[in-house]
Amino acid sequence: YIMQKESYLVVVSVLEGRNFPSRPKQNIVIECKFDGELLATDPVPHTESPGFTTELAWEMDKKSLHQHRMHRTPIKLQCFAVDTAKDIKENVGYIVLDLRGAQLKAQAEKWYTLLNTKYSRPKPSVKISMVLEADEPKQAPFKAQEAPARTVSVDVVDNVTPVLDEEEGCFQIGRRGLHNEMYVLSVTLGSAFNLEQLIPGNKPLPGVSPGYFFYYSLFESDITNDVFHNIFSPEITPERASIRIRSTVEHLKSYFTQNSTLQVHLCCVDQLLGSTSVSFASFLSNKNLTMLNSSPIIIDGMFPLSPPDKSLEPNIVQPKVNVSVCLRREDVPIDSAPQPVPAMETPRKEKYDDAAPNDHPKNPPPVVSAAEPAVLVDTDNDAASINSDVPAKMPQSTPPPQIPAVEDNSLATTETHTDVPGPTQHFRFSLDIKTISILALPHACNVFVKYSYPFFGSFAPVMTGPVQVFNNSEVIVPRSMCVFDFACTQKLLQGTFRSLPITLEMWHRDKETDDVLLGTSILTLGELISMEKDKVLITQNGKKDVAFRQTRRGAVPVITMTKKKIAELNLIATLEDFGQVVDQAILRPQQVSEVSDKPTTQKSSKPEPQNPRESNEYKAAIELELWKSQEQEKFLKKMNDMENQQMQLLTEEFKKRDKEREMLIAKRIAEYQKLEKQLSQTNASLEKREMQISSTEQELAHLKVDLQREKERTVAEAKEASQRMKEDCIHQVQLERERRTVAEDQNKKLLRQVNDIEQKYSELMAQFHEYKNQLSSRPEVRMEAELNLLRMEKGEVDRKLESVTKSKLHYKQQWGRALKELAMMKKTEQEHAMANLKQQQQELEALKLQYLAADEKKDLHNDQHKINEIQKELQQLKSVAETKVSSIAIESDQKLLNCEEINERVSRLIEERDTLLRTGVYNSSDRIISELDRQIKEEMQKQSK
């Protein structure tokens, strides 16, 4: 049984988004490259709230996960908008996740705002959750596993084309087998010099403030570094691109034989400015390839850049770029090889966004200081030794050791010594971080600043005392003054200061956890050596001498890894030049001998006293020594008092001037902050306007394309429609012609049939008239017709009687309803009149009653008259019916039905006329009433006929 390694899954769940602008013809995709593997979500419509609902997972072992956490490798999610019509992918922002926040326990989802987004407010955000899943180790029988070679496709031996293995996150070169090893190929771009020589003079660069970047291709992957804008003194952050390769030494040699160089290009937007070639010849050496299993192969150096047209003048300084290429086995650390030491290399912090899991950061090569040990000199600033072996930070209060003087021309020297060369000069560099201005921190922090500069002779970092800071505050940094004494040539000093800045790191000291890096700041020393030199009087070896001092005061920003400004360091940098180091004639100690020029006097014949202490000369010498010591003590006391007074005066004057200087600096800082705020506001407004203009231009271009496409589609549709209509018209004309011919034939046929039918009809009519005449001549037929006619008249009279009775009942109902309405009107009128005066109410009531009585009488009289007329008509109808009964007339059933319809119409017209008259709106002289009377008379006439 074989035990598998403990592995983990880093799972990033991309759930949904919000505050995105709606773009109908575009999709949105989120991509993430981590641990050498690129994953992406499925394309979703670019709506205001896109739903991704996708999990991105990377598998790694415990060692790789620990290395990523130690290196603080970020997980960067890139958000792209994809145009479905043109297949164009546009970067709209990114999100940075901290791998250290991934835990084995499920965390709640969080909304992350897109950084560097092109969309205006409100800024879009994406809901993301990150969790760490542990895969339990499984045991599997060794016999049940298949050989790895059987699962891999068979390739040609000579084929060394790299093939991406997405499962293991590496490239396979050559055939996969048991002898394959995992290698790491790393490319690092460092500093660059004299790039301004590559700017073409015959054509302008694109853009107002163009950005420059280096570009190269590695395994068909395009890689660029961060964009920089100052081409005269470029600030290039070294970035390492690492690729894991699974292959053998023979296949690697074949691959680097076919691909012998790495092309590095300097670009400005889309314009090529210069190129250089890095040869892989060192990778082809058999000696290096045999040592590859134990140590890496490193190609490091300054490579010249040449423009595309090779038009550089021969006398100018060649532009160069520092490129480092490293090939090693994955289990071999990069520090195990002897690293090449470039002439000037800035120790900067590298980025590890695309680094392999086991790719350790490469330590920058140490820059050996040019300082040489020298003899001790006495200056007014109490300079210490210039020996490069002593620590860089020297206390200023300790006086330097003096060279003791020996009387009688004897010299005391040190046993070992080195003479300093003539052109070497004594320099002193001091850096004083006065205050820290905090702009934006997530919480209160214990901040300290750490930096190192190996050129001064020590690799040990210099750290200030921790101080607690808050947001929008300014604090004084304790123990921030540091002085470095060193010796070097003026040329070496200028070249180093111009190429190597000091990287100041701001850390947060936590008692519970390790120190946390908040941000870094770059202090360029090239500006210091360009400052104006001030003369300063110093005392050296008891002699007054002149030194030159250069001072730079200012504030440098502290930038985080996400390019965000969180603080400012207000500091003072000073460089003092004490001139050339004087050679000291130092000898070895010798025995001191006294040589007397005078001959030795012969012994006196007088006997010497037995006790020499009793002699007067001895007593006088003792008194002289006592007086001398007393005077010496008095003189030293007086000098100490004078020194204390002068020190107190100097201290008070220094405090006064320091306070004035601080007030002036505070005033200047306030003015600079105000100007910076105005500048930032103006810059923000300009960026906003630029974004609006760019978005408007894009929309205008989209609209133009849409209109052009719509125009083409409309023209094509119109052409198709006109062609189709033309064809339809031709077809319709043909059909109509055919139909006309058919119709003419049918018309002729029908005309013949009509003529035949008319002839038959005329014959039948003649026969019918002849038959009718025969029937009419018979008496039974005549009597039967008269009887039917009388029956019809009787029925008609009955219907009229019934209609008259119905109308009478209707009139009664209408009369009762009118009386009820009248009563209601009276009641309402009475209620309304009660509000007025009683006298007016009685008068008005009497008048209304009179008018109402007269109207009622008139209506009753009219109704009675109409009833009488109807009764008379009924009597006449009855008498007519009775007279006609005797003479029986027979009419057809059709006439009876017509009479019934006439009676119904007459009753309906009479009812409508009476209803209109009862409303009081119409009278008998109105046109509508006259028209109804006319229609009634016509119907009655029809009935009588």
Automatic annotation (TrEMBL):
Domain of life: Eukaryota
Keyword Transmembrane (UniProt): no
Domain C2 stretches: 1-112
Keyword Nucleotide-binding: no
Matches recorded under SUPFAM superfamilies: C2 domain (Calcium/lipid-binding domain, CaLB)
Region (Disordered): 334-366, 592-616
Biased composition (Polar residues): 592-608
Any one of the GO CC terms: centrosome
InterPro entries: C2_dom, C2_domain_sf, CEP120-like, DUF3668
Keywords noted in UniProt: Coiled coil
Gene3D superfamilies assigned: C2 domain (2.60.40.150)
GO biological process, one term: interkinetic nuclear migration
Coiled-coil stretches: 669-774, 825-919
Name assigned to this protein: C2 domain-containing protein
Organism lineage string: Eukaryota, Metazoa, Chordata, Tunicata, Ascidiacea
